[in-house]
Design a protein that fits this description.
With 456 residues, the chain is of the alpha+beta class. Helices cover 44% and strands 17% of the residues. It is built from 15 helices and 17 strands. Helix 10 crosses helix 11 and helix 12 crosses helix 13. The protein is elongated, with a radius of gyration of 29 Å. The C terminus is likely disordered.
């Protein structure tokens, strides 16, 4: 909703919308038992910043609670409402109920506003905290307050540097220098309608154990896992998160990265709502694998949800906007994020089409591999020879993957054919070829101009 805070134009509409959405929250308007209200009133009347969990349980007992689980349920409810803070799942923080949440947030931002921490671009130590939280109201709760910062995803302990921490939102905005292998990268990106602040900060905190030699800055991070390396950069101007991965085991690392972003995205939305009702709206883009885009640092990209919709509607090919080549939709998804569950179409024709697609792609890659090997045999430049060796290796891996897919399809196709309607067996099926794509002459499928052959 547009607004101008210089003259408050549009502010009334925003306040009204906030009131409306608050009124729709599940806790709002729910009648409460009198015992719950009495405990809440007693907590709000207490002038202390925090009490122990045992004190909270005793207070519940005084006001009529008997069952231990009921007391913890009330604690969870009050935590969700923001009346108090009680992290029941945390071994350290569960021992205390923070009665004044603003006391905890004030303590946290006292660290983040400290000149020494600011000058160190978010770095601080346990010794720094002894000085920052030296006053009486914080000194006895230093371990708990530090854990509170970690729970709020505001800092993390630097691996291999015990008792030294980083607050990512205070990191230097300058991207450090580092070497990057740009051969055969896997490039994925998220594009947001509106990009809230803090996504990259939360991601860095959650993934900090994989950070490569402290290569982290305010808008990005380098991760390493086994034989793969990932660069994740937030671009607020274009409202996107760009991910590129190099190395041999790219997909397992991408799976971890996507899983973390999924959790962050889901925290903004009710996952039970349809996408059009989500507060955080975004699209995930995966790279094209045509001959022009394969290995490029700027490949054409497709929205993943659109590719999945095409598969559901048995549209197995899509054109690249750069090369105008037709590419296989399932192959695009498999190459980027790995195989997805089979869709509903179980007919033999569908299996034959998929087999034909894979066979044509295998033939194309075999021809490309032969050309690469011939070039490698006569190449004398060391740098170019290294690049060709990497390309040969990538093609060999792709060919092995295709052969594996074909071997898996063969028995499945046999089973489907044997279980199909006997009257269908032996009926001619028209297959249309165009580039790397094969389409069947089925109702609801596109015919592509090209050679036409009949298969019995």
């Amino acid at each position: 909703m547009p607004t101008n805070l210089s003259d408050n134009r549009g502010l009334t509409e925003i306040v009204s919308a906030v009131h409306h959405h608050i009124s729709q929250l599940p806790h709002i308007g729910t009648p409460l038992p009198k015992t719950w209200i009495r405990v809440r009133d007693a907590l709000e009347a207490n002038n202390r910043n925090y009490i122990t969990q045992n004190e909270f349980l005793d207070l519940c007992e005084i006001h009529g609670f008997k069952d231990h689980e009921d007391k913890l349920q009330l604690s969870e409810y009050l935590h969700d409402l923001g009346v108090c803070l009680h992290f029941q799942e945390d071994d350290l923080l569960q021992r205390y109920v923070i009665l004044k949440p603003e006391w905890g947030t004030t303590a946290v931002y006292k660290v983040l506003d400290t000149p020494k921490v600011l000058a160190a671009f978010g770095h601080f130590t346990i010794e720094d905290l002894k000085i920052i939280w030296a006053d009486q109201q914080h000194a006895d709760m230093r371990p708990e307050l530090l854990r509170l910062m970690e729970n709020f995803k505001l800092c993390y302990e630097i691996p291999h540097r015990p008792k030294t921490y980083i607050a990512p939102q205070l990191l230097s905005p300058n991207q450090p220098e580092y070497q990057w292998n740009d051969i055969d990268n896997l490039i994925v990106r998220y594009q947001y309608e509106f990009m809230p602040k803090g996504i990259i900060t939360r991601f860095i905190v959650e993934m900090h154990r994989l950070i490569d030699h402290e290569l982290v800055w305010k808008d990005g991070v380098i991760l390493t896992d086994k034989d793969a390396r990932a660069e994740i950069i937030e671009d607020r101007y274009h409202k996107e998160m760009r991910i590129r991965i190099s190395g041999q085991l790219k997909k397992p690392l991408l799976e971890k990265i996507r899983g973390e972003f999924d959790k962050i995205h889901d925290s903004y939305n009710n996952t039970e709502d349809p996408p059009e009702k989500h507060r955080l709206r975004y699209q995930e883009f995966i790279p094209c694998n045509c001959s022009a885009c394969k290995g490029s640092q700027n490949p054409f990209s497709y929205p993943l949800n659109r590719l999945q919709e095409r598969l559901k509607n048995y549209r197995h090919g899509i054109e690249c906007d750069i090369s105008y080549e037709l590419v296989n939709v399932r192959g695009l998804i498999d190459d980027a994020i790995g195989p997805t569950p089979d869709h509903e179409d179980r007919s033999p024709d569908f299996g034959q089409q998929r087999s034909g697609i894979l066979e044509e792609e295998l033939q194309t890659r075999m021809e490309k591999l032969n050309r690469l090997r011939q070039s490698l045999a006569i190449e004398t430049d060391t740098a170019r020879k290294f690049q060709l060796e990497q390309q040969v290796k990538a093609e060999e891996e792709a060919i092995a993957h295709l052969e594996s897919q074909l071997s898996n399809i063969a028995p499945e196709l046999t089973n489907r054919t044997s279980s199909s309607n006997p009257s269908d067996i032996g009926r001619a099926t028209n297959i249309y070829h165009s580039g790397d794509i094969v389409y069947g002459d089925k109702v609801g499928q596109d015919k592509v101009e090209g050679d036409k052959t009949e298969h019995p």
